[in-house]
Amino acid sequence: MTSILPGAPWLIAHRSMLGINQPNKITLNGQDYVLWQNQNREVFALSNICPHMQAPLSDGWICKERNTIICPFHSLEFSTEGKLYREGKQDTQQITLPLKLTVIGDMIWTYGECEPHLPIPDLIEKIAAEYDFVGIAGEQSIQSDFLNTWLINSDFNHQNGTHRELFQIVQNRVTAFEKKDYWYKVKQESTRASNTLGEILTNPVLLTIPKILKSTVEYWFPSVLVLYGEAGFGEFVQVILQYPQQQNQTKIYELIFGRFKASWMKPLLGKSILKSIDVVVEQDIAALETRYPHHQPKVKLPNEDVMVYAQQLYRDWHSSDLTAVVTSQLQ
Ligand code: FES
Ligand SMILES: [Fe+2]
């Protein structure tokens, strides 16, 4: 396949998703890679296709003494540089290609096989420094193209339908919308109906969701969007990530951070927060995967200009005006 948004920086994993000396398969823009982290927290990636007889290296295993990966089919061993390792030493010839990674803190970024077109946004490091990391939520590979998957998080009307059961939003207002090149920011306020006792008993985290939800969402198209919100326990931050796997398949996951009013709250509520986000993500996926092919809408709702802006960024990815501004930041 041709790359979707070539040159975008993709955050393909958070360190906590990788394990230690475990091969992980990653699909980005139609290519499969094997990704692993060794006991010294160094991270490596190679093409997942064994150069001998094309077995998937991610089904193999890691030799931690030699920092190599061993193919599951005939147990040939490859170094992190993609060279064969045999009889105690590494060949000089590279026979499979490493994937270039940029590791910043716990974040594993890559441009895939493309030249950088936008810089790596630095906001996640700032969030990680200021908030407690709660965990990963909503990790899924979904049958939906990249743009439509991105758009659901720029759609400030879908909570009324897609998420009605969980949040019971009765009114939603976009109170601010700012934009500059590939960055845009939206402030919203949502009024919720009251939850019944039964609902609270099944999902105690509802108690922590206020009646008026105020949140700010910042977008760094197309790599990351961040939702900042408040709840009874303190503040939370959802770092929402996605990258294209195939034309009609997108990987999504979220890094959840919090600032808790008291230290006992994180162990008590952490799992419940992650579970609630899993539910929200499942609802989005159901909406995305059950849609019919896209046609021009015949009805317009308020607040749709945010989606229109994102659609325009996607369409204009190759236009020189916008990229000239942003690529100057790469130099
Ligand atoms: S296919 Fe990998 S060693 Fe033969
Ligand atoms: Fe949603």
Topology, element by element:
Blueprint: E1 10-14, E2 24-28, E3 31-37, E4 43-47, E5 61-63, E6 68-70, E7 77-78, E8 83-86, E9 89-94, E10 102-104, E11 107-110, H1 123-130, E12 132-142, H2 146-152, H3 164-167, E13 169-180, E14 183-192, H4 197-202, E15 212-220, E16 224-231, E17 234-246, E18 249-260, H5 265-289, H6 305-315, H7 320-327
Antiparallel strand pairs: 1-11, 2-3, 3-4, 5-6, 6-7, 8-9, 10-11, 12-18, 13-14, 14-15, 15-16, 16-17, 17-18
The protein binds FE2/S2 (inorganic) cluster and fe (ii) ion.
- Compute the gyration radius: what is it? 22 Å
Bound molecules: FE2/S2 (inorganic) cluster, fe (ii) ion
CATH class of the largest domain: Alpha Beta
Spatial strand order of the main sheet: 12-18-17-16-15-14-13
The percentage helix is 10-25%
Q: Average pLDDT across residues?
A: 92
Q: How many separate helices? A: 7
CATH topology of the largest domain: Naphthalene 1,2-dioxygenase Alpha Subunit, Chain A, domain 1
Keyword list:
single chain, 331 residues, alpha+beta, 7-stranded antiparallel β-sheet, 7 helices, globular, binds FE2/S2 (inorganic) cluster, binds fe (ii) ion
